[in-house]
Fold:
Amino acid sequence: MEILKNENGGTLTISLSGRLDTVSAPQLDEEVKASIGDVSELILDLANLEYMSSAGLRILLSAQKTMNKQGKMIVKNVNSTIMDIFEVTGFTDILTIEN
Amino acid sequence: MKIDNYRETLPLTGQTVDTVSEKTEALLVALNTEKSNILRIRLSVEEALLRFLDKFGESAFITVNIGKRLRRPFISIELEGEPYNPLASNQSEFGDWSDSLLSGISLNPEYSYNHGKNTVILKLKQPDRNPAISLITAILAGMIFGVLGKHFLLPEMQASVVKTILQPVNDLFFRLLNAVSGPVIFLTVVVAICGMGNVASIGKRGRSMVLRYILLSFIITAFSCLVSIPFFRLNYVNNPLSGTEFSSVLDLFLNIIPNDIFMPFIKGESPQLILMAFVLGNALLFTEGKSEKLTELTMQANNVGLIVAGWLGRLVPYFVTLLLILEIWIGSAWDFVGIWKPFLIFLLISVVIMLIYISYVCAKKGIKFSKYIKKIWPSFKTALKSASVEHAYGENVLCCEKKLGVADAMTSSALPLGLIMFMPAASISMLAFTMYAAQIYGMSVSVVWYIFAVILTVIVVVAEPPVPGVTLLGYAAVFSQLNIPVKALAVALVANTIFSFFTSALNQAMLQTELVLQADKAGMLDTEILRR
Structure:
């Protein structure tokens, strides 16, 4: 999985590509935890993400909980594969999704 | 299809979780599992393994078994260590989002702890074919062979096949149907009432739910009857205000009480059977604890009845083909051509009622009509494509809880109950076809006949066993009571096959909308989710 970060003021954009599986999830977890300390807006761009595992969903949920306290989190460019995962798990009700 | 069994003991690491997830997906793909269900099962397996990983760390080992046992596909995970159930709710700080993933598609993983070993096993369903495919194939095959035979076989040969094969098979099937329908309907009602003890136990709300479903079904079916009357050319016996007509209505209700307990079975008197079932069911409920053996015996008899009904249901596509050939060869195919009329009437009335229902909910809860339709469309489409609410059950639950905002406590009780007790589209379709059958066989009808038809269609639809393809049992019961010739069942068989695609989807949409109203009334509706 490839992780690209772009910080602009209080806004951090993280773009993910490849597979967010159980092996790659800890890498994203570390990146997110290390970067969102002073961020008021977190944008996750999932345009090129091919699969999200249960471990990936946990990271999103954890990030959402953190961002609820300090700002907002937006998930954008969600492709149909990832949207199916969000729909069956009910994450569409938890996350703010913008396409 | 061949499925290779996979068994391996692996260290519990992230890599192992991904490997097991991929093996699970491969099994599910081989089983032709629906895409959204693959995701549900895969994510559930991953989550169970992650919970084991959270608890035991990477020093543990798991034994994974994926394959088929006694022809049933399964996935099992074993881990040695202290007892820990990864399926229990709130085991994880990450919430319980995964808890309803499998229950939503009627799968229940089991956890056990024996000889120091934690075992989680998920038994999957056998891959089943979409019932719609076999029904459509049956109709097409009947039409093709019927037309080809009519044109290419000598009339003597056609007559011989009709006399020696088609007619006897046809008679045998309908005799079987009549023999099975009474006892199966009786047992289904007794068991349903015994089961309703659970509904009653959830209090006043459960009882009012049952009453509301039945009352609404009667109102909708009676309204459909009134609207349909001008569209059928029925031989009406016009003496609605005479004393004879009034006493007939009275007789109708008095005749529901049987003279003895055997005749209703012998004569197949479905209203009397349903009344007897109602009394017996309530008596068993009332004497709970003192009549356990009788209740158990009834349950077992019902299971046997459902198996027999299931066998009949499986035979339906073959009989659709044979009946179509028979009717085309003996020149009665025009009765089939006229099916468009009750079909169109049923479809128009059901769609209008559904839209009124939805508009009412949208106006009441301040949600855009188009948005509501968009929310229920995926589950509607699945029911429509498969002609079965059972196939769409998972999406139905998801739609109610995640899109319409109905609390899961409400969905878990009111939805399964509604699937059995609230089937207005099925009642409308049966009534429309019954009126059509009365027209083609020149029946005389009266106010009493219409009242009886409405009551019968509603109670028979509710009393039918929940087995795919056996709606015909209901038609057999209704026709015998309304004196409609048995041969009308042949047309009913084909009509019901066509109607079933739409009845499933329309029943489901009306039930979902009804659930929103019930949840709102009970304070169990999340309006934010509904409006989102």
The two ends of chain A are 22 Å apart (CA to CA).
